[in-house]
Specification:
Chain lengths: 336, 351, 351, 336
């Protein structure tokens, strides 16, 4: 495509609706997968801690699209969106959450431990910040082996508080490694607001900049903007410019872990939630595209139907897949 | 006395300590949130204020050091982590500082901190949310390691831990939080370093800790009905170890089975067996045994955890082998209705 | 073959691995400095370049994760720390990531990294520079734990470790670096998981590891002259453990003494004794024993380390007790001239 | 004293030579103690790793003087100067290095583990950065207990690379704790130059500033300037302004650990060493004081003689003190 997403949308005459449509599709797909998980979670068949990213789809969709399949990515506990955005296999993800043998980790990992090496999704784990140096190490490996891959590290605003983030950013800057850090600042770590975790008035991206990693912040609910900026950073990283850091503000709609809404329990307000809901990245882009006539209601209906079908198939696949056999508990300790 | 659950007992101990002594503070990720660490810290911030009860950044290592430093100026910090696994980030502060400070500075300054770590199990907690590393802590000279089973012990030992002048690692098993029991009201201490003989019998000594003691209680009840009597020793604290309680029992029964919530190799159960082999060799009538988790990370899928965790049936099976009797291991599980990967029907996941 | 010391043997293994395989990299604080990690990394940067041999920031945890990540893209990192104690900062990466990755992702991606940790002792290394935490590592499913004694094993096991597809913790005792021995030239591997029978005898099985094997060699030589013959099993790798080698020997001798460089409680020696009690109960003629360091941090003053460390005389003393003979323990130390807190006259401190 | 040190020296008419004299005395004392250790170390009676601070005395002297005895301080492996600057007992320190029962840690700690609680020196340990959060925790305790004490954390440029530094600074800023961070940037961590550890062009103090701790840098060999700036920061911290961070550049003259010079072994140049030696903080102040006539050669001779006498006494005390008895190995595991 010859124009950046931002240009295409700013300039309806030359609008490349294909790009925006693709971003919309990717966001909707993540949303509908997550909604389906939320809906079915109470059945008690997905028996593992599960962190949904509903409300935060824009970053996953845009960053995933800005990367190549050969690029690497790692993530943390809230990884469904990152996995899907990067091109991870949906069926295998749902099967993994169901603990099935066909899951992307053979049932050993669950929702918090996803992998799809075929598309460079090298792993997500549940210890906050624990994959950050792993992503930097993948960046080091690229440097050592040559080539123009990049390594992407997804992290949250809570992960920024771990010393290992700081150490990892320092090393990435020191060696000018091809690493893209993508921080989704959703203002909470579990139920803890920023206020009890980071000094007032401190900016995450400015701080990271001063560590030596060029940094910027952006609206994480503006998918086109996220895509545009990340894409150009990715090009620079590929060309040897060294690491980059993005802080994208966004908001998690549902509870930290599990399927429910929890604005009633007191750690955040219904008003706050509603104000963020009104900035829904999906409605926003959909509104723009429908408004400019680039997409019709019908197109959207078709898109949703396609996704619904895919999601249903994925759940059917997961439900009908076998559980791992009992002796699988005792395999994969060492690689021979 | 009245019946309350383990989580409430912890909550009472914290409130009681903070009430009695201004120096006690309580912090950790989520201590003041609506869930209050599985209910254990509910209401504390309202009662004792934001200075003494506070949330923290996700910075396990520094926040351990902060507690250590505060304790040197006459503060009594109680730090909490929702899973032991997160605390792996803080081994430097725990081992290089807290455990050694009193010794390496010639006894001038001790580090009276209490670190509550919750041990996960089941509902797909998986490899990074289910580790039980008590043998690590027991291996580090200078630490005390407490692993209560009953609500009363939870309360009494937590109070003893907070007012102990040394660093205490206080391990709470997630599957115990809803266990109910009689708990004395008010200021109630249980001494660190004393085991508790929960059942008496002449046929076998079972040494256990934390959640495995619940499984052992099921097993011993089942076996008692079949005429087999066991001493069931709930260690309560593994460091210092109440070796005398074990020795007395093994001298009586001549048979030893040790249970552990951790992976088998390098487990604390192994330490107990080693000591029995070294110091009770002549009274042992047969080879001691241990039941611990397999030497594998914990898997996530319920299809995989079923064969991973050990429980009452395993205890009965091994006892059968030791005594050469068929004690009907499978029947020992029969009355328990919940799926194997939840502690009881009260647990609806996800954490 | 020719005689070289342990440090040089490590150096050869590294050079050999890097020569043979472009994927091998070597990093850590000081790997390229004038001292070259006690000589073990000297010359490597000149030979293999700054990309493959590099110093690092004082960031133990992240740099472990960096190695883990690199290993996932077909790099073979060898990371080095001048003391195990510093590596306590990296337990999260080692245990939550390196050890579990292969298992928790269903066998799709292993983590072939080698982590060299140096164990300090003597010359006032003190509480924060002398820890021996091999039993921690052995307790974590998924890790391999290597503890060579001889220069040949150091070389052969390091090569096996680097090319093993799993995370290996490679523990080098500082007091072994100057020990000399025959070492094969070129590409020479010693398999991980196989113990080495260094001495043979029918009276007692001594199981040992790392530097304690040197003390055991002094002790067995002394006792041999007095007519007492011991099997001396140098474990070489504690995880996987070569249990068969131990079992064969104990079946022959009926007597077991286990040595360890670490604090006694929770030591790996305890694990070996527990297994012998469980699996060799009927062949044991008497209670097994262990000799390990006391359950105290290591003090600094030479006046305090003298009574802290265990050596040949202790081995002879315990053997005397076990066999009911006076084997003249004090004489076992007599020929050794250096002060007790240095490995030999070559050592002039300070590190 | 009514004038700040800087004013007094800048303005000879009102010069308070007493202050400058005191700073000179404190620096000389640290220097002469360290020189005496270096001289005697080869005797093999100080049997522990020993890190000398020769060349870096200004920071220890000035910061120690800016603090009250009731203030806290913690430090790392290179702590002799900090301990002495804070008022730690010299005899007990030397005895500790000799491993004697009369040592400040009873022989259990050695050079790397010093303590003198009577003057608020709460401990130094040998794990890089490990006491940083301890110092912050002391700051928290002050906040909880009230009062206008402050807590001082001495650290090096290498310690800045540990994640725990970052975490500790974040918490100190978050809670506005009364903590003074004093970073001696001597450009090396063991034999490793900055270049292999931190990104080019990055400023430590600017980075720390962006974490939320007000920061500045200064010439660590200008003792009067260090004193003046730290002293005013200390007042602000006492008055509730929250933490402050100083990065002072300076240079270690001798080898990282041990008594010798090592400019010949190749990790740094003799030229670099000589250029720093020409900035000797002691010669500099002595020159100024002698130059302005505030001190005579004779005064200096007397000062040195006093110190020499004290140092000799300290060594005599250490040498003649008993070793701890063998059973002391097995005490102090737990406090009863
Ligand atoms: C080391 C560690 N500490 C604490 C936790 C508990 N925990 C799980 S998710 C989470 C929140 C992290 O917040 P953030 O990085 O902002 O991610 P978000 O959940 O907002 O996506 C925490 C603290 C953990 N998993 N690991
Ligand atoms: C955690 C840890 N890593 C590595 C070391 C080894 N080490 C001892 S001193 C030192 C240098 C630290 O440099 P800096 O903080 O600048 O202090 P300086 O020696 O320059 O005073 C290092 C890396 C250690 N003691 N602890
Ligand atoms: Mg967040
Ligand atoms: Mg330095």
């Amino acid at each position: 495509m010859s124009l950046t997403a931002r240009e295409s949308l700013d300039n309806p005459r030359v609008a490349d609706a294909g790009l925006a449509r693709e971003l919309l599709y990717r966001m909707k797909r993540i949303r509908m997968v997550e909604e389906a998980i939320a809906e079915r979670y109470p059945e008690g068949k997905m028996r593992c801690p599960t962190h949904l990213s509903i409300g935060q789809e824009a970053v996953s969709a845009a960053v995933g699209m800005a990367l190549r399949a050969g690029d690497f990515a790692v993530s943390g506990h809230r990884a469904h969106g990152h996995y899907l955005g990067k091109g991870g296999d949906l069926k295998k993800m749902i099967a993994e959450i169901y603990g099935k043998a066909t899951g992307c980790s053979g049932g050993k990992g669950g929702s918090m431990h996803l992998i799809d090496r075929d598309v460079g999704f090298m792993g997500s784990t549940a210890i906050v910040a624990s994959t950050i140096p792993v992503g930097v190490g993948l960046g080091l490996s690229i440097r050592l082996r040559g080539g123009d891959q990049i390594s992407t590290v997804f992290l949250g605003d809570g992960a920024v508080e771990e010393g290992v983030f700081f150490e990892s950013a320092n090393f990435a800057a020191l060696k000018k490694l091809p690493v893209l850090f993508v921080c989704e600042n959703n203002f909470y770590s579990v139920y803890s607001p920023m206020r009890v975790r980071q000094p007032p008035g401190r900016s995450i991206h400015a701080m990271v900049g001063s560590l030596g990693v060029p940094s910027e912040s952006g609206d994480g609910n503006d998918v086109v903007d996220v895509y545009t900026r990340v894409r150009s950073a990715v090009e620079e990283i590929r060309n040897g410019a060294g690491p980059r850091f993005f802080e994208f503000t966004t908001y998690r709609w549902r509870e930290h872990c599990g399927p429910n809404f929890d604005n009633d329990i007191g750690y955040r307000s219904q008003d706050e939630f509603l104000s963020w809901k009104s900035k829904d990245p999906i409605e926003r882009l959909e509104g723009q595209l429908v408004g400019t006539g680039a997409l019709g209601k019908e197109d959207i209906g078709r898109m949703e139907a396609d996704i619904r079908h895919e999601v249903e198939q994925a759940f059917a696949f997961a439900e009908s897949s076998p559980f791992p056999s009992a002796d699988e508990t005792f395999t994969h300790l060492y690689k021979d | 006395m009245r019946v309350i659950n383990f989580a409430k007992a912890i909550n009472e101990a914290l409130a009681c300590a903070m009430e009695a002594d201004q120096r006690v503070i309580c912090y950790g990720l989520g201590v003041d949130d609506p869930k209050g660490i599985f209910g254990t810290t509910l209401g504390l911030q309202d009662r004792f204020g934001e200075d003494r009860v506070f949330d923290m950044p996700t910075s396990e290592n520094a926040m351990t050091g902060v507690g250590i430093g505060a304790s040197m100026n006459d503060i009594r910090p109680v730090m909490t982590h929702q899973r032991l696994d997160f605390f792996l980030l803080a081994m430097d502060q725990l081992v290089n500082n807290a455990a050694k400070w009193y010794y390496m500075f010639g006894g001038q300054q001790s580090v009276p901190i209490t670190i509550r770590l919750i041990l996960g199990r089941g509902w797909g907690q998986g490899p990074t949310h289910s580790q039980n590393l008590q043998s690590w802590f027991a291996h580090v000279p200078g630490l005390k390691v407490v692993m209560p089973t009953t609500p009363a012990d939870a309360k009494g030992l937590l109070l003893s831990s907070i007012f102990d002048d040394n660093p205490v690692v206080f391990l709470e098993h997630r599957w115990l939080h809803n266990v109910e029991g009689d708990v004395p009201q008010g200021d109630f201490w249980v001494p660190i370093g004393k085991a508790h003989l929960l059942e008496e019998g002449d046929d076998l000594t079972i040494v256990s800790m934390s959640y495995m003691t619940i499984e052992a209680l099921h097993a011993t009840a089942h076996m008692k009905a079949l005429g087999v009597g066991c001493d069931l020793i709930d260690l309560r604290t593994i460091m210092p170890l109440d070796w005398e309680a074990i020795a007395v029992s093994v001298r009586k029964t001549g048979r030893l089975l040790v249970l552990d919530t951790a992976s088998e190799t390098g487990s604390f159960a192994g330490e107990v067996i080693a000591r029995s082999a070294m110091h009770l060799f002549d009274v042992l009538k047969q080879a001691p045994r241990r039941i611990a988790m397999p030497d594998f990370p914990s898997p996530t899928s319920p299809a995989l955890t079923r064969g991973y965790y050990r429980g009452a049936a395993d205890i009965v099976r091994v006892t059968s082998e030791m005594l050469g009797q068929d004690l009907k291991p499978d029947a020992a599980e029969k009355n328990r209705q919940s799926p194997h990967d939840v502690p009881g029907d009260w647990f609806k996941g996800p954490f």
